[in-house]
Write a structure and sequence with these properties.
- It contains eleven helices and eleven strands.
- By secondary structure, it is of the alpha+beta class.
- It has three domains: about 110 residues, 2-Layer Sandwich (Alpha-Beta Plaits), CATH 3.30.70.1050; about 90 residues, Chitinase A, domain 3 (Roll); about 160 residues, Trigger factor, domain 2, CATH 1.10.3120.
Length: about 425
């Protein structure tokens, strides 16, 4: 027995369709009668034993409720069948145009509109010309990393002074008017918390010394009380600690879990090389995706653009909260973010089409390995990362989609034509 008759598919646009669907009367009636019979088996009506009430009374009491339940069950089923027959993939829930007008023993007709995935014809993604970006590691790169490792192992020891650059000091400061007063300010001399001239004036001071320093704070300073102001600060040095750096030698290497200094340098070289190659890959993928977007034109579902704008607005609001900035006009911001949203949606749809053609998939092991890798990188339990993604997206689908797109980009890059520079 036929469940669904797809009468008409109208093209409202390339990304919006109108479906006219009809369910035969006998199909609906069979479902209603089956449901009423189930109700009858457990129904208790006055004057009748359980399961023995006449069907006419069952229909009278439960008929309308059963009809509604049958339609609620059948409409999603026939809608899914209609999508399959029409060979379209929806991106939103359907909108019922004319409401529901159901009468027993008559075919049930409904008209739905739905936004659909666009068809992307003539996919061309092989042999995309991408520039080669050579990478190398010199001694200065290695020394920079070793010095950073050295600073991480630094020990600060008490001193009476005088203060030099990179000393860790504690001091009180206030303005002559008394409107700003701070006790026990911790500061690494030369750091960005105070202007350069402030650090320069501190050099040479000793413990318990007092000094008046005139300085100007930048407009984007982290403290609203100090940002953009020209102030005279009265400073009292309370504590000075000198940095004691370990020697960069074989013992230093062993503390890092490496046999000797030469082996540590080789390890650092490989890690820098890996990081630079990863950065090159990111640049090449971005250039490649831009070329693909420029060479493929297709319409985008408006609902997907609006959803992406909403996501970008949320990210923008979160960033402003962290930076303590005031919200801008929402409608103006939406218009500014729209080009980014269009590019993001177009990129996702294009990669999805290429991935489908190439049969790219993401397995549960792929997701598990990605979570474990991120957990190691950020030094957090894997469970915390899973909770983060679920709280953010409601599931791990967001992570899974990111992995899918990276796999597709890797595949396209493997087919690219790398152009060597002169």
């Amino acid at each position: 027995m036929e469940v669904c008759m797809l009468k008409v598919v109208e093209d409202i646009s390339t990304t919006k369709k109108r479906l006219k669907i009809e369910i035969p009367a006998d199909t609906i009636e069979k479902e209603i009668q089956g449901s009423l019979e189930k109700v009858r088996k457990t129904a208790t009506l006055p004057g009748f034993r359980t399961g023995k009430a006449p069907m006419t009374l069952i229909e009278k009491k439960y008929g309308k409720k059963v009809e509604g339940e049958v339609l609620d069950r059948m409409i999603p089923q026939v809608y899914a069948e209609a999508l399959t027959r029409a060979e379209i993939t929806p991106v939103t829930d359907p909108v019922l145009e004319e409401g529901i007008d159901f009468k027993r023993h008559r075919p049930f007709a409904m008209t739905l509109t739905v936004e659909v995935m666009p068809k992307i014809d003539d996919l061309v993604y092989e042999h995309v010309a991408i520039r080669d970006i050579p990478v190398s590691v010199d001694d200065a790169d290695i020394i920079s990393v070793l010095k950073r490792m050295q600073e991480e192992k630094a020990i600060y020891e008490p001193s009476e002074g005088p203060i030099n650059g990179n000393d860790l000091i504690s001091f009180d400061y206030c303005t002559p008017e008394g409107d700003i007063s701070v006790k026990d300010q911790i500061y690494k001399v030369g750091g960005s918390l105070f202007p350069k001239e402030f650090s320069e004036r501190l050099v040479g001071m000793k413990k318990n010394d007092e000094l008046s320093i005139e300085t100007t704070f930048p407009e984007d300073h982290v403290s609203e009380k100090l940002a953009g102001k020209h102030l005279t600060l009265q400073v009292v040095v309370k504590d000075i600690k000198k940095v004691n750096l370990p020697d960069i030698d074989d013992e230093f290497a062993k503390d890092a879990g490496i046999d000797n200094l030469d082996a540590l340098k080789n390890h650092v070289r490989e890690e820098i090389l890996k990081a630079k190659r990863n950065e090159v890959t990111k640049i090449q993928k971005a250039e490649m995706l831009k070329k693909l977007l420029d060479s493929h034109e297709f319409d985008l579902p408006e609902s997907m653009i609006e959803s992406e704008i909403a996501a970008l607005l949320f990210n923008e609001a979160s960033r402003k909260d962290q930076e303590g900035k005031v919200d801008r006009d929402r409608e103006v911001l939406k218009q500014e973010l729209r080009p980014d949203a269009i590019r993001n949606v177009k990129g996702s749809l294009l990669l999805a089409a290429i991935g489908k053609k190439e049969k790219v998939s993401v397995s549960e092991d792929d997701v598990k390995n990605a979570i474990l890798a991120m957990a190691r990188r950020f030094a957090v339990p894997p469970e915390n990362l899973i909770k983060f993604y679920i709280s953010k997206d409601g599931s791990l689908n967001g992570l899974k989609n990111s992995l899918f797109e990276e796999k597709v980009l890797d595949l396209i890059l493997s087919k690219a034509a790398i152009e060597k520079g002169e």
